[in-house]
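Components:
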Amino acid sequence: MAEVKLYGFWPSPYSHRIIWALKLKGVEYEYIEEDLSNKSESLLKYNPVYKKTPVLVHGDKPIAESLVILEYIEETWPENPLLPKDPYERAMARFWIQYGVDTVAALRAFYQGSGEELEKAATELLESLKILEEQGLGDKRFFGGESMNLVDISYGALGYWLAAVEEVKGVKVLEPSTLPRLHAWAKNLDELPVVKGKHSGL
Amino acid sequence: MAEVKLLGTWPSPFSYRVIWALKLKGIPYEYFEEDLSNKSPLLLQCNPVHKKIPVLIHGGKSICESIVILEYLEETWPQNPLMPDDPYERAIARFWVKFVEEKGVEVWIKFFSSGEEKEKAVKDSLEMLKTIEEQALGKKKFFCGDKISSVDIAYGWMARWLEVIEELAGVKLFEPQKFPRLHAWMKDFEDEPVIKENLPGHDEMLVYFKHKL
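Structure:
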């Protein structure tokens, strides 16, 4: 079995995605913490296009971009599947993962905004998350049903990351009163052994 | 075999991605042209989240987002595969699709700004083209080898739409001598019979997009 290395950056939720996937599949790996202010030769060699983390190196083959890495992990280690079997269900899972990519702008605006801009950003973020809650999550415990899958992994940081930003900004978006199901989802996710305590206090 | 419908608009490159994939795989389908200024009830029902095209409807189930549709087509109709067999090569393919999804949009939107924003867009676009030229294409005819793949399909807008954008924005971005591999790829891509028969006309597109600006 070729060895697996993960080049990551601890504060980054993108790195956490890969850790969760590897742990859920029981894949042994070596974790290498990168100092992004002083990038290693290895990182620059393995990700010449973006020079970012996370990068998974399997054998000597590097893969960059967390969502690409997740699909690779799913195909290479099929045990404990993290995507549905049915092609239509898989398409729906990929749709909601893509929706998360599109939501990053709203999250960024919330993170960077102040005053009136912050209010506007909070409203827009809430609207985005409402759609996610109503049409993506619905009444399921996790996006993957009874257990977490790649969709949950892709949104995994939402709970704790957003909570930290809300505290800094003094504005709440993800609450039981505004987004009851998504709020419950974030709590349930945080309780899973794989996720629990895997993120440092931000 | 459940019927396949495609909701699209001419001349959206996102629509064309799905058309190319359907035709390359020999999947019969019914095409519906959408008027985006007057969206059909079917579109609103099938893509309530984004209300955009393309939408693929297979046996009554709708799939949205062109790249998601491509993956769905690949999994549901494995004949004439559009992705490599090997998981690592598939990861590389997906990486380059993501790259153009992220960087390509800038070309569309910011080219039609002005001043500093436009200058930056031009600079960023040149860097994007340089990366594709030097790191994505290599010595192969197409992105993944000798045959067209989903990656080529994702980059397909460069084959015809890029020159239209350049003309409308008054920017000369792509010079064949500066990007020989990309230039060769564009020719090979456009020469593929399925693509050749399914490309919007340059002049018609100029008229259409000029109208929109």
